[in-house]
Amino acid sequence: MTDGPGTRSQRFFARWYPDLMQRAEDAGQADIRARHLARARGRALDLGTGNGFSVPHYTAAVSELVMVEPNPGLRKQLQRRTADIRATAWEIVDGDAYALPFPDASFDTVSASLVFCSLDRPEAALDELARVTKPGGTFLFHEHVRGTGLLRVLHEVATPLQSRIADGCHLNRDFLGLLDRSPFEVTEIEHLRMPGPPARITPMVVGAATACN
Ligand SMILES: C[S@@+](CC[C@H](N)C(=O)[O-])C[C@H]1O[C@@H](n2cnc3c(N)ncnc32)[C@H](O)[C@@H]1O
Question: Residue 198 above 70 pLDDT?
Answer without folding.
Answer: no
